[in-house]
Design goal:
It contains 14 helices and 53 strands. By secondary structure, it is α+β, with helices and mostly antiparallel strands. Strands 1, 6, 7, 8, 9, 10, 11, 13, 17 and 18 form a ten-stranded antiparallel sheet that branches. Strands 32-31-29-26-22-21-20-34-33 form a nine-stranded parallel sheet. Strands 2-3-4-5-19-16-15-12 form an eight-stranded antiparallel sheet. Strand 27 and strand 28 form a beta hairpin.
Length: 850
């Protein structure tokens, strides 16, 4: 590259802060002499498009278009023709969206701009720069695009203060900077901190640079990889072993806007059935009807709230999917109804491998062969691989007709009353082969609306195979029960898979380090589209200890999916295991999750509308919390937000008794368990930077001495949280008032969403939505309860309002002008509790001190 010319480009963009020694910035022309390497390093032609620009680089072609003012698509081919314009991940409505752009061509550059973004390409180098309208650098090529036969690599400049998040359920720190990662869905039993790849391929990341954020999504189903400065500290790169160069740039500038933009591209998750937010108990395996009944009855006898029980593969006859072992589950339909009567939802595993059992009356195999639904070898024979049933065949999920056939296999289980289904082993996992999966040369048939019909190798389809498996399950369940929300849990998936299934982090281990790993993995999944995610509480592989199970159940109570699961030949792991004292602590946290259910369900509904995850890194809510605007999570890697109001702070090393510091963003905070304001309670807050009493707008530090029975949780000042009376299942109607807990502070607000929890009636406004806000002064408080939206009728007839940080018995309380005499002031907790009637039109609660 001509570095002098590059320097002029930098100056023209107002990017004088950029160093000119960016790694290998188009300088190593010798690279182009390597055998089999093609570099795209100059423009030979340019033409304006209505929504972007089209470029030529010799025989190569490049197209940059604006889908929205803040979303760009970049497509590149080393030939004159761009690849097929189709996607398994990006919604057709987004992929075909377009906004008008203004063409820019002057001197040695060509490009365009939208209302928010500028795109410039240097004609002599093909270097692309994306900046905001003020000219501030956002994204810039660091080297020419490289093609190695079918493989490619894209290089981007990596500023020193930029940090990277996402890529799904990767291990290690939340920040990906300094690491290299591979996207190749892999069955990784007993994975550890440095294991890569794992079960999912989600080639999307969010970058944050001093408070300005953007996202990059590489829409490529082949084996892809990302390097965030491991090879070169001044550049990051991404590429694939084959397939198209097709990636999207999503501008913030706030991280929430990036997450919402990614959801706009790849789709929103469906609103889950409410029971899926309850406590779920599983094991590999509960071997008999009697054992499952024993677990169910013990839950109810011990008053441990629980919504779901799981059946792993041993309920099946010889591990064959869509069968039932008649010896161990002899009265299966009646058994499912018995669990429903006890208010349990049953979730059944249905692995995708179909037992290779010709001429044995095994309907899934027989109908699959008859319908030509299985993946083939290159010679046209059906591929057979060993999995749990022994020799097995594999559905060809890239055929819509085959997905429809697969979905129809759920008919009998659905009629029996099973509530949800669990698609495991769908990387796909194959036993006794070094690759752990299908041979890469197997042939799939793409027969899908919106795609050109053709054969594709397993190498191309591998990463999306699990997603299309869960898609077939989800769509099949919808056809069988169109008025009931499906629940599908998948282990493997691809970008966009959130449209069909919830997920979990796979076969973790019963160790303290795996508890510690769970938080960044779940946060990363949430940023990558999968808010409805959890891990195996207590750990899957190996036997847990009593203290580890207790602490994991505490942390898990604030995760989206709350499932206790463990493997064969390990110690029991149900909540009552161990001492009565340990069970009491675990019950307390499970109970509190059920009391918090109105807040959790409201977050799940928000996620289904916006894509914002339920469980969030701190920087998503507080992008400007630090003086230099670096992500706050770098200082507090063990902490997370549940929605915008709750901050959960487990110990960074929970197996150790050492005290630790919780870092609180610069707003007011309350202790979740006592309601006391942090400056007034047992935890004294000091400024992180100086260790002295707080100044305005400073980060706060609270010292915590770990206790087994206590998980530190804090409430953001200005929050209004809804709580319900305790129930044993979400199917049980709460008996008592709705509780609103008010934590006075700036921008005081809250909301509540309710519906029937299972159907799609909410689409016809059969829901309830209420918004709340409050204003507080030294001697007064006003709480506004908004008018109810929607037709759904609440289960409560009264509202109990508890206001924290209140100093004295009030002199006057009115609700919509009428005096209120029913209240209680608690001196020790400095809280005021007031009882109000439920009103569809809402009202104004006003409190004045004496």
């Amino acid at each position: 590259m001509n570095r002098r010319r590059f320097g002029k480009l930098v100056a023209a963009l107002g990017l004088s802060c950029l160093p000119l020694n960016v790694p290998q910035l188009f300088a190593q022309g010798a690279k182009a002499q390597r055998v089999g390497v093609t570099l795209l390093d100059h423009v030979t032609g340019a033409a304006a498009l209505s929504n972007g620009v089209e470029l030529k680089a010799g025989k190569a072609s490049m197209q940059i278009t604006a889908l929205r003012e803040d979303v760009l698509r970049i497509r590149i081919s080393k030939t004159e023709k761009l690849p097929e314009d189709a996607s398994w991940a990006v919604l057709p409505s987004a992929r075909t969206s377009s906004v008008a752009t203004t063409y820019d061509a002057q001197g040695g550059t060509v490009g365009f701009h939208t209302k928010l973004l500028k795109v410039l390409i240097d004609r002599s180098t093909l270097s692309m720069t994306i900046s905001d309208q003020s000219g501030r650098f956002l994204l810039q090529d660091a080297a020419p695009i490289e093609f190695y036969d079918d493989r490619f690599r894209v290089y981007k400049r990596m500023p020193g203060q930029e940090h990277y998040f996402g890529l799904g359920d990767k291990t290690g720190p939340l920040d990906r900077r300094g690491g290299a990662y591979e996207m190749w869905n892999t069955d990784q039993y007993r994975f550890q901190e440095s294991t890569d790849p794992l079960y999912k391929a989600i080639p999307f990341f969010l970058a944050d640079n001093a408070g300005r954020s953007y996202g990059v999504f590489l829409d490529n189903t082949w084996r892809t990889s990302f390097d965030f400065g491991k090879e070169d500290s001044k550049a990051y790169s991404f590429g694939a072993d084959g397939g198209p160069v097709d990636y999207y740039f999503i501008y913030g500038p706030k991280p929430k806007q990036v997450v919402e933009g990614y959801a706009w591209l790849t789709g929103l998750p469906p609103l889950p059935p409410q029971w899926s937010l309850g406590f779920q108990q599983s094991r590999y395996s509960y071997m008999t009807e009697a054992k499952v009944r024993e677990i169910a009855d013990r839950m109810r006898a011990d008053r441990i709230p629980c919504d779901a029980l799981y059946l792993d593969i041993d309920y099946q006859a010889g591990n064959a999917p869509f069968t039932v072992n008649q010896e161990t589950f002899p009265n299966f339909p009646n058994f499912v109804q018995e669990l429903k009567a006890k208010q349990f939802s049953l979730v059944m595993i249905t692995d995708l491998h179909i037992a290779d059992r010709p001429n044995q009356g095994y309907a899934p195999y027989d109908t699959g062969i008859a319908g030509n639904h299985f993946v083939k070898n290159p010679d046209g024979s059906v591929f057979v691989g060993k999995v749990w049933p022994g020799p097995s065949v594999f559905p060809d999920f890239t055929r819509k007709e085959s997905r429809d056939w697969w979905g129809g296999l759920y008919k009998e289980f659905s009629e029996d009353g099973a509530a949800g289904f669990w698609n495991d082993m769908n990387e796909p996992s194959v036993f006794e082969v070094p690759s752990k999966t299908m041979p890469l040369g197997l042939l799939h048939r793409i027969e899908e609306p919106g795609f050109v019909s053709r054969f594709a190798s397993h190498e191309e389809i591998h990463n999306l195979y699990g997603m299309e498996n869960s898609r077939g399950t989800y769509e099949g369940l919808l056809r069988l029960k169109p008025q009931q929300r499906p629940f599908v849990l998948t282990r493997a998936t691809y970008a966009g898979g959130q449209r069909y299934a919830a997920t979990w982090t796979g076969d973790n281990s019963s160790t303290w380090n795996h508890l510690r790993m769970s938080t960044p993995m779940l946060l990363s999944l949430g940023l990558s589209g999968f808010s409805m995610a959890g891990d195996d509480i207590g750990g899957y592989a190996g036997s847990t200890t009593s203290d580890l199970l207790t602490k994991w159940l505490e942390v898990g109570a604030f995760n989206p999916i709350y499932r206790d699961h463990s493997e064969k030949f390990t110690a029991d792991q149900e909540p009552w295991v161990g001492t009565p004292e340990a069970e009491a602590v675990r019950r307390k946290y499970i109970e509190d999750r059920y009391r918090l259910m109105p807040y959790l369900y409201t977050l799940a509904e928000e996620n289904s509308r916006t894509g914002l995850p339920m469980m969030r890194p701190l920087f998503l809510e507080f992008p400007d919390a630090t003086a230099d605007k670096h992500p706050l999570d770098l200082d507090a890697p063990n902490q997370f937000m549940l929605g915008q109001s709750l901050l959960v702070a487990p110990a960074p090393y929970p197996e150790q008794p050492d005290s630790y510091l919780v870092t609180l963003p610069p707003v007011s905070w309350y202790d979740y368990w006592t309601g006391k304001k942090i400056t007034d309670g047992p935890h004294k807050a000091v400024a992180v930077s100086t260790g002295v009493p707080l100044g305005i707008g400073e980060l706060q530090s609270v010292k915590i001495l770990p206790q087994l029975e206590v998980l530190p949780v804090f409430v953001r000042g200005g929050s209004i949280l809804p709580f319900a009376p305790l129930v044993q299942s979400t199917k049980e109607k709460p008996n008592g008032p709705l509780t609103l807990k008010v934590y006075p502070g700036d921008q005081c607000e809250g909301s509540l969403y309710q519906d029937d929890g299972i159907s799609f009636a909410y689409r016809d406004k059969d829901y309830l939505r209420v918004k709340y806000d409050c204003e507080s002064g030294k001697d007064s408080l006003r709480l506004h309860i908004g008018t109810r939206e929607g037709h759904f009728q609440p289960w409560w007839s009264d509202i109990e309002v508890t206001i924290f940080n209140w100093d004295a018995t009030p002199g006057k309380i009115t609700y919509s002008g009428a005096p209120i005499s029913k209240f209680h002031f608690d001196v020790s907790s400095r809280s005021l509790t007031i009882s109000l009637p439920e009103k569809a039109e809402g009202g104004e609660l006003e409190i004045v001190a004496r």
